[in-house]
């Protein structure tokens, strides 16, 4: 049975839009490998939720004169920390000890294309965050057929908020952009597609698959 045959159509149109927005789907090899290593998957998922909250808080500190951004990302940061707590609950249920693990190369590759000059720096950061949230949402969706019922249900519950976060970051980028950003967005999407499909050296929530013997 193919990977596509395992997947029901997204119940939420926003999730379907995200799958079309991304330039490449998560490879079936990564899905098999991640679902076979649940402790690592959950530990790095927890790290990703912490980083998502940290990114939102960093923007709050840096752009204090933008009231819409402050209010929107304050709410988002709280949601990301709540997700972090929920991942910890999933780990506790499985007696998984939270250990320090190295981050994947994914986020660093995306950040490398962020401008150092304003206002492009803000807009690029918002676009990178939108793509990261979109990829997380897509992986939550595609992982579900590979997981136990309880963990699949957990990821299904996260879909709507991840889709909302993706749209929020895109809307904020549109609000603060002073020139068209489609070319930059396509550049970020191309980096994302390469990062999640190319063979990787370590398995992480946003990595590519490992080589299979």
Q: Could you give the count of β-strands?
A: 0
Coarse shape: globular
Binned strand content = under 5%
Question: What structural class do the secondary elements suggest?
Answer: mainly alpha
Compose a concise summary of this entry:
The protein has 213 residues and is mainly alpha-helical.
List keywords for this structure.
213 residues, mainly alpha
Q: What layout of secondary structure does this protein have?
A:
Blueprint: H1 3-6, H2 13-21, H3 28-35, H4 38-62, H5 67-93, H6 106-111, H7 120-143, H8 149-176, H9 182-197
Description:
There is one protein chain. The chain has 213 residues and is an all-alpha fold. Helix content is 69%, strand content 0%. The two termini are 21 Å apart.
């Amino acid at each position: 049975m193919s990977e596509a045959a395992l997947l029901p159509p997204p119940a939420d149109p926003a999730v379907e839009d995200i799958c079309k927005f991304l330039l490449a789907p998560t490879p079936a090899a990564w899905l098999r490998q991640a679902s076979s290593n649940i402790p690592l998957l959950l530990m790095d998922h927890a790290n990703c939720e912490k980083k998502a909250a940290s990114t939102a808080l960093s923007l709050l500190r840096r752009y204090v004169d933008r009231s819409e951004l402050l209010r929107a990302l304050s709410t988002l940061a709280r949601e990301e920390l709540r997700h972090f707590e929920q991942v910890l609950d999933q780990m506790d249920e499985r007696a998984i000890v939270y250990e320090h693990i190295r981050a994947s190369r994914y986020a660093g590759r995306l950040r490398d294309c962020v401008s150092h000059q304003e206002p492009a720096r803000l807009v690029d950061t918002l676009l990178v965050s939108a793509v990261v949230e979109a990829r997380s949402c897509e992986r939550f969706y595609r992982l579900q057929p590979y997981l136990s019922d309880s963990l699949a249900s957990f990821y299904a519950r996260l879909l709507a908020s991840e889709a909302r976060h993706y749209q929020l970051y895109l809307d904020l980028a549109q609000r603060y952009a002073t020139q068209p950003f489609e070319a930059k967005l396509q550049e970020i999407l191309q980096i994302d597609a390469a990062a999640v499909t190319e063979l990787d050296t370590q398995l992480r929530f946003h990595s590519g698959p490992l080589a299979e013997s």
